[in-house]
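[Q] Does anyone have a clean structure-token version of this?
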Amino acid sequence: MKLLLCWRIVVSDLRAFIEHKCPNGIRFQRLGDIATLVRGNGLSKKQLVGSDVGAIHYGQIYTKYSRFTTTTISRVDRDIADKLVVVNPGDVIVACTSENMEDVCTPLAWLGEEPIVTGGHTVTIRHRLDPKYLVYWLGSQAFQRQKRTIAGGVKVIDVAARKLATVMVPVPPLEVQREIVKVLDRFTQLEAELEARRKQYLFYLEKLVRSSQDANIFKLGHYEELGLIELGRGKVISRRELAATPGDYPVYSSSAANNGEFGRYGSYMFDDSRITWSIDGGGKLFFRNPPCYSVTNVCGWLVGHSEQVILKYIYYVLVGQWNRMKFNYTKKAHPSVIRDVYKFSLPEVTVQREVVEKLDLFETLVNDLSSGLPAEISARGKQYEYYRDKLLTFKELS
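[A] Here you go.
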């Protein structure tokens, strides 16, 4: 409560500062009038193995970076870089292609000291604003509303550079932009600290699981062939079906948000414990407990069929391995695929149970959905979004 009151005071003071500096309102301008927008071209993942020039692939903006970066995790050779779009210090890269409306136009500010390059499915914005201010604004609800009017596509959502150039951007004085950035940076720093705690949990999980493994490493599919486990996938459940058959049984789908819940249903598929995951791109893994629930066709499931298996142990093993995998938006994680992807040993049941008991306790302390770390991250995220939108909502200059 004290922290929330503190943020209210900070934001209130900043709003007063903005009102003092801009008593008649803020000028809104077309992005294309204050920036040059350049659509990227080329750059496959196979080319991200060079040594000459820093490079950012559009998929990495979703998976490897946050809002700002001063370094790149990949480089390309000079002959490849010469054919790509140059990103200068202070430019903003927008990933303009996505599988969903929420993620499309995710921005990344390049704050490094040297030019880098980027490839296709991106728009590089060369602008006259504070780069962090522009990135924060591109995450605001004000931009999200405009984005929905310029985005096209069904299975793949795309925003063209010429359409992105038409959005109206509030352009307060540079000193006001920088004061807004200072406040929002403090929010994101808190988010980073919470994320560091999550990484500590994953480090402990991987270390404990690794210490329990022995030399008998087999593919996941091997344990299914032995009859110890079974893999499958859900069935198609549309929103229309949910509406036609109302109820309180949760239905889980491919999203990682809201614990993966898609809606509520009057029927159910399972009443036992299972591991589920997103088939589209090999998404986040979940451990589902009774009572009753269902999973859609874009979810895979795994269930145990033997007293030799503690299902929660396999879940922790898979989470540790998935956390180190390179997420691939194009690869479908069907049960037939992951049978050969995950490899591990099944120690004695007593060892499995010991690992599960330790990790369950640690997860309760750090990772509980109702009172632990995810809830805290979610609460801070909602506070950030609220105050971000409050700070980035302006009275327009007549």
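[Q] Thanks! Anything notable?
[A] Residues 174-212 form the longest helix (39 residues).
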